[in-house]
Amino acid sequence: MSTEDKIKNKIENLGGKAKEAIGKATGDNDTKNEGRGDQAKSSLKDAGEKVKDVFKK
Question: Which residue numbers delimit the CsbD-like domain (predicted)?
Answer without folding.
Answer: 5-57
